[in-house]
Amino acid sequence: MDIKGFQFSAVEAAIKKPGRKDLALIFSEVPATACAVFTLNRVKAAPVLLSEERIKSGAAQALIVNSGNANACTGDNGLIAARETSLLVAAGLGISDSSVQVSSTGVIGLQMPMERIRAAIPGLIEGLPSGTLDDIAEAIMTTDTFPKLEARSGKAGGISYTVAGIAKGAGMIMPNMATMLSFIITDAAIEPAFLQQSFRRSVDNSFNSITVDGDMSTNDTCLMLANGLAGNPSIVAATPEAEEFDSLLNDVLLSLAKQIVRDGEGATKFVEVRVSGARENADARKVAMAIANSSLVKTAFYGQDANWGRIFAAAGYSGADVDPSRLSLRFDDVFMARNGVFSGGDAEARGTEILKKREFTVTIDLGLGDGSATVYTSDLSHEYVSINADYRT
């Protein structure tokens, strides 16, 4: 991956326990245009509170992130720890403290082990020239089973640039950000207002369109840095270059979002839920999310039970305008019901075969209008309970 002007480093600080890298740093060699979205949970972690305030400047140059400790529900000490961490990084890099973003993921309610972080930061900074984005992706994992990375290349003014991203997340995944962290970098020069618009659209199409278990965390963060060192003419809205960048960014974020769902805690299925025929897009989204979050639907997926009635029920309680006599449902290309009526035993047998697949699509047509939405979800297994029952041990 050829991306200019970014350096990476990851070290072991034994924040939760020894044996793996858990403290990471992304550094832009020049101040970068920056934008971010954060959890809508009213219980926000200290690093979220700090970074929300700093991102208002529209610029950043470094990000320090740890796994193993969320630094959430830690009171004034949590904010003190987040600020001290950023000060240490800024001093080591010789940059402004306000240009350092801070992010954390892990167990809620435990104070940050600052003595370990203080000891680890010098080595973290020294390691910058030799680290990779892959190192960061591995260091931010918690219950993830694999690191999540994606990259795309484009051109503006005949000059090549790269958009690359990493993410972590497997549980507590729910739109309006999930229990996830994602960091996107590009060496493209981009007009700040357009970057913000493109970034927001891509987040809505990706991280705000996935759910694993319907839970929302205290630490969710998606941050983007654009340092302009590719040397291209600045990309501005309403141009062919803007359309290409928009598409590349959306592809990167959607790939990362789908990786999170595929890595859902205990997940054995990846399910695309498509809703069409709604009176408006908002209604379609309500139905899609109700289906994707239903424990009864998700356990049926796990059990390979073509229980289509559970899906109709979820649509009915979603809060959207629904006429049961107009509902039609497919598993991939198999119609389970048309106009609210079961298609019969042969359809159930074929539908059951669809549910045995690792990935499939559920399509429900409300028959009322042109509104549509797509959401990505997983099944709900015994393993999900086991993982979350033992998360802190």
One letter per element, helices H and strands E, the order comes to EEHEHEHHEEEHEEHEHHHEEEHEEH
Indicate the CATH topology of the largest domain: L-amino peptidase D-ALA esterase/amidase
- Total count of strands: 15
How many helices in DSSP terms? 11
Overall structural domain count: 2
Strand content bin: 25-35%
By CATH, the superfamily of the largest domain comes out as L-amino peptidase D-ALA esterase/amidase
CATH architecture label of the largest domain: 4-Layer Sandwich
Briefly, what CATH class of the largest domain? Alpha Beta
Q: Report the helical percentage.
A: 25-40%
Distance between the termini: 37 Å
Helix/strand-derived class? alpha+beta
Shape: globular
- Over all CA atoms, what is the radius of gyration? 22 Å
Mean pLDDT: 93
Largest sheet: 8 strands, mixed
Could you name the ranges where pLDDT drops below 50 across 5 or more consecutive residues?
none
Query: What oligomeric state do these chains adopt?
Result: single chain
Describe the secondary-structure layout.
Blueprint: E1 6-11, E2 23-38, H1 46-54, E3 59-69, H2 75-93, E4 100-107, H3 114-126, H4 133-139, E5 148-156, E6 159-168, E7 181-186, H5 192-205, E8 210-211, E9 221-226, H6 240-262, E10 270-278, H7 281-293, H8 295-303, H9 308-317, E11 328-331, E12 334-338, E13 341-342, H10 345-355, E14 359-365, E15 371-378, H11 382-389
Parallel strand pairs: 3-4, 7-9, 8-15, 10-14
Antiparallel strand pairs: 1-2, 2-3, 2-9, 5-6, 6-7, 10-15, 11-12, 11-14, 12-13
Helix pairs in contact: 1-2, 2-3, 5-6, 7-9
